[in-house]
Design brief:
By secondary structure, the protein is α/β, with parallel strands linked by helices. Helix content is 35%, strand content 16%.
Length: 381
Amino acid sequence: MQSHLILDWKGEKIKSMVFNNKVKYTAVPLEADDTPTKKTLCSHCSPYLTKKNISAFVIILILSTAFFLVACIGGNFQSKVCSDNNSMHLISKPQNKYHMPKNLKIAHSRRRLPHCIIIGVRKGGTRALLQYLKIHPDVQVAPDEIHFFDSNENYSKGIDWYRRRMPQSFDEQITIEKSPNYFVDWNTPSRVKMMNASIKLLLIVKDPFYRAVSDYVQIRENRLEKDMEMEEFEDLAIDPISGNVRINYKAINRSLYYIHTKRWLKFFPLEQIHIVDGDNLVLRPFEEMEKVETFLGLRHYLSDDHFVFDRKKGFYCIHRENGAHKCLNRTKGRPHPKIDPDVMNQLNDFFEPYNQQFYELVGKTFKWPKAVGKRSLKRKH
């Protein structure tokens, strides 16, 4: 009995012949057999199934899987794929404890121009205001101060450049940007109006005197870190020869709320500008944030439970579900130098008429100046 088994292997045919139950193998050239063979899928693919190609395929497969998982659970929200009722449910981890998971379609997120801008005022509490707004699940905030409207260089890059610096958001969310210098920049109001005439604006103000001192302290600290000298506040705020207040000193000029607000009202009605009491935001954050939610048309999500008073720092921080709390960075609540009482009284008298005009302009009264406290005592040299 004799049987034949013909196999292709490396360009040769192997004939297996059985003679008397003994197997013998004979290699013959392909051309020796004219019998047609049927090509299989493996025969087509075998030239490509190299170690290099297989490794590349495995890497692509791993990266695709990783991208899918990131899309599903890496962001703040669930994707359509992850949250579909007929598919696996993968619950995303919120960015912070107060961004609750929502059934939003990640595929529908996009970078949009801001619906609201915090225009100022510098050292009035803009960072705290932005951080508190960030708690709200229906708000997305730009992570950095973009300075688009007050910088000719940035403004020349165009509106698409500005849009690309916005966070991704969904249709049911609003996007907010903060650049405090917008308030005092002369070009910003007209530029903002050209972008969106119906945009909502947030302006947060504090006692003009203490705001000016805070402004000075920030600049002084930045200069000292660079080993640069800095004059005393009194010498910068008061002309040593005439004894008059230096109205062009930036720390003083930024506190003239009436002048700058009046310029903004030439381009936007008062109904589109909400004035936040920065002093009250420090003392009663929930009270001020509730008004902000109403102005922005947001559902009332924030509550007293979101804030906890830090006795060591002396101001409110964001309360987390695990009992811990997140405070603003070290630049929040810098200690003020002790200012000469005569200079303080002179500045308060200087600000008073501007304050009264500001009250009438915005239809709101603030408790300025503050009561004399420890920081008003004469500095010891």
